[in-house]
Input
Amino acid sequence: MKDVKTNVMRILDKAKADYCIRTYEAEVDGEYIPLSAQNSLEKIGVENERCFKTIVTRARPGVYYVFMLPIAEELDLKKCAKSVNEKSVEPIAVKELLPLTGYVRGGCSPIGMKKQFVTVIDETCELFDNVVFSAGKRGVMVDVKVSDLFSLVPISSADITH
Output
């Protein structure tokens, strides 16, 4: 992959945050192949527990939340709702993602969204110095200090997985 500089990286650079870029082939014959629990170690050299996916949810019309969790895990929507003091949350439809966040499925990052939403990361992030998540483009990930992520995004940690 050519030298890529995403908005996420520009924001990290501006904040003088150290990060490492990790890339993988995200498309085969024009078809999107997501990073998964089965291939994260092979594709980017990172264990599942440290590789986080970003999911955008809606609590009610116009009220959105972002949740980050290890790629091998599933959101517990009841725990998610409780973590943001809502009655319920549900993932938004894929077609809503780009207009709402500026990102496509597989390239959604908690940093650099069109509008900054309250973000909750699974508490397992606290077990690591660094976590890996999308750099805002399919096939490009950033390996960032957890402390830097917390300083750049209105984020908290909670138990949000099954």
Notes: The helical segments are 7-14, 40-44, 77-83, 94-101, 146-152. The chain has five helices and ten strands. The mean pLDDT is 93. Residues 7-158 form a domain with the YbaK protein fold (CATH 3.90.960.10).
